[in-house]
Amino acid sequence: MSSGVSQSAVVLASGGLDSTVAAAVAQRDGYDVYLLTVAYGQRHAIEVERAGQIGIALGARRHLIITADLQAIGGSALTGDFPVPKNRSNGDRQSGIPITYVPGRNLIFLSLASAYAEVLRAAVIYFGANVQDYSGYPDCSLAFIRAAEAAVRIGTKAGVEGRAIEVRAPLLNMTKAAIIRLGTTLNVPFHLTHSCYDPIGSLACGQCDSCLIRKRGFLEAGVVDPVPYAVR
Prior knowledge:
Layout: E1 6-12, H1 17-28, E2 32-39, H2 46-58, E3 62-67, H3 90-93, H4 105-120, E4 122-126, H5 142-155, H6 157-160, E5 166-168, H7 176-185, H8 209-221
Parallel strand pairs: 1-2, 1-4, 2-3, 4-5
Helix pairs in contact: 1-7, 7-8
C-alpha cells in the first residue's frame, strides 16, 4: 500500500449474504473492516439490524449507518407500494430488469462509501455485487463499477492527490453456490444474514426472487441454510 494509506477497507454491508461474504473476504485479504450500511427506506429494514449483528460477529472496527430516504423517490417494489414479485421462474428472473431494482441505489451507496473511505484514508471499498444470479441490475455490472471508480478518482481530493480508491467486487462473477462455499471456508455467520425482499415479521418469505436464489444456492452448495422461511 502507498504511504499515507491505511490498512482499512470500507465494506458496503446490507446485512445480506453477498455483502457479508465480501466483508469476510476483506478480512481474509488483511484489512481492518469498516462496515457501511444505508437505511434507504427499504421494506426489508430488518437487514439494517442484521448488518449490525454481523459487524459484531465479524469483529468489524465500526459499523456506520447512514440514512438516505429513497422512499421519497420511489420507483421500486423495495421502496414503494408495488408488490414484490413471488415464485418467478428462473427464466423470468433472467428477463429484463425487475421491479425490485431501486433507481440510483448502488450509485448512491458507492458515493457514500467513497466519501467514508476518503475520510478513513482507506484505499479499498468492498462491494458484494453479483451478476450471475440476478436479472440484469445495471448497477451491479463491471462497467458500472469501473465507471464509478473513475468518477471517484476524478472527483475527490484523494483521487486528485494520487490516492485512488479501488472498488473491489470479489463475488461479481461467482454463482450463489460458489459464494456460499467460499463463505463457509471463511466462517461467515450465515444465520445472521437476511436476503428476503418481503419478510413476514422476522421470517424470510421464501418466495421472492432473492429467497428463491438463496435457497437454490444453498441446495447446490450442499450446505444447510440456517435461516427460517415462512415457505420452504
